Amino acid sequence: MATIDIKQQHTLGREAAKQSAEKIAQKLKRELNADYRWQGETLKFDCPGAQGGIEVGEHEVRVAVDLSFLLRPMKGRIEREIHEYLAECLG
């Protein structure tokens, strides 16, 4: 089970939502040195202390993240940042 599991509705359609997920992954790469790859409709990512995926649907995006033991105390802050960024990207 993921440490963080967030679902966000959107009205962008699948392709535009995938483009937004790609932007999120590029930001993760720049800021957290994350590696990422597409696996079907899911963008998988790995970065120091966390790994997970952004599953893109026609009307919903699901973000699932497994945090390392060391990052779990920061779970609330990380969840808030994910919610804020999803609202900004998928608004």
Summarize the amount of helix as a percent range.
25-40%
Number of helices: 2
What is the N-to-C succession of helices and strands? Answer: EHEEEEH
Biggest sheet: strands, sense, closure? Answer: 5 strands, antiparallel
Task: Quickly list its features.
38% helix, 35% strand, alpha+beta, 5 strands, five-stranded antiparallel sheet, 91 residues
Quick summary:
With 91 residues, this protein is of the alpha+beta class.
What does the model show?
The chain has a 5-stranded antiparallel β-sheet, covered by helices on one side. The model has no long low-confidence stretch (mean pLDDT 93). The radius of gyration is 12 Å and the shape is globular. It is built from 2 helices and 5 strands. It has helices spanning 14-32, 75-90; strands at 4-9, 35-39, 42-47, 50-56, 60-67. β3 (42-47) and β4 form a beta hairpin. It is an alpha+beta fold and 91 residues long.
Give the helices and strands, then pairings.
Elements: E1 4-9, H1 14-32, E2 35-39, E3 42-47, E4 50-56, E5 60-67, H2 75-90
